[in-house]
Amino acid sequence: MSQFFNPPDGAVKLTPKQANIYLWGWQKNARFRDAVCGRRFGKTFLAKAEMRRAARLAAKWNVSVEDEIWYSAPTFKQAKRVFWKRLKQAIPPSWRAGKPNETECTITLKSGHVIRVVGLDNYDDLRGSGLFFLIIDEWADCKWAAWEEVLRPMLSTCKYIVNGEQRVGGHVLRIGTPKGFNHCYDTFMDGQPGHEPDCRSFSYTSLQGGNIPESEIIVAKRKMDPKTFSQEYEASFESYQGVIYYCYNRVLNASTETVQPNDTLHIGMDFNVTKMSAVVYVRRGDTMHAVDEFVDLFDTPAMIEAIKERYPKHSIGVYPDASGDNRKSVGASYTDISLLKNAGFNVFVNTTNPAVKDRINSTNGMLCNTLGSRRLFVNTDKCPRFAKCLERQIYDDHGQPDKKAGFDHMNDSGTYPIAYLFPIKIKQDPIEINPIPTINRWN
């Protein structure tokens, strides 16, 4: 390795938890690292150390200068404010080929490699080069499309040799504080034991970072609501404000129930061409357990075929979208509900759908009522899409359930049986009111 890459005085010092994340870098089974950490954990100091190491390894392993080293954040303004000054501190003048480019926020090394600070707000403009190493800061706030459409492909072509072994593919470290159950949660779970073989994830609280005294944590506890504190300081994935099914808790509403041979199946169904979905429930006493799901089937005949193939011997009750009695998915004389009845299913549906608010309230009440009782449970291994949709569907700007993010169809399917079997409106018997005796005030 060239002499100019010898670490200068003032090299970044890491706390034990930061060092643990760092030490997993460039391992084959940790190509994709995710660090979910509380505020003030020291993620930026870790990023400085990571960028310095990537600069040294790019020269040592003879990585092509076409494969760059990037620090990224949700916006370019944010990336520059947070890291540009720190990057210039981390990469000393003795490593550089010239002065940093203050406009483009780039540093060219004597080895010819380029280190760049970028924003992911205009991610289409980033296409072109390959990537040897990438840091994504505040990952929960970044656009998933930036990763899927641009950054991930840019990591795919990098080639280099380590100890005589050819390796293909750049590495990434995604860091940040969680924000609900979005893509940050998905990639964090990829790195947990037993999941993806080339992923590794870490979770540390603000206190574990070693940069905030415990007294400051106590002050924050006094001033913040529990959910916000858990998210910001304990790096906990919390349902954020605006989530419709806010009573759903992946742990507390977890189920291990599965379909048994003699079970009657209660199947909620939503009608959408190419996007048909269904959730399968079994009933255990006064509790309901989601135990299977059907996702993105083409139409009602395809759904009927799939259900019959998977459950040929079970008694089946279907709780569909009431509009299916008018909608014709195939032929001119068969409505969706007619198709279900002709298939031999028992169909339970009112003449009109319940009010959206009533359906939501029924479901939230089953997930957890004001007494803390939970009667609706989800087997997340069997119903991963339904669980994700419960966690992520929010209200739009008009106060209606959002239908743009794609979390609505499965939730509609899963809530039709609940609203039918456990309606929020309670029928009351008429109350007999005895007439009040007339009082003669003059007697």
UniProtKB/TrEMBL annotation:
Highest taxon of the lineage: Bacteria
The keyword Cytoplasm appears for this protein: no
Residue intervals of the Terminase large subunit gp17-like C-terminal domain: 267-416
InterPro entries reported in the protein's UniProt record: P-loop_NTPase, Terminase_6C
Alphabetical UniProt keywords: Viral release from host cell
Protein name from the UniProt record: Terminase
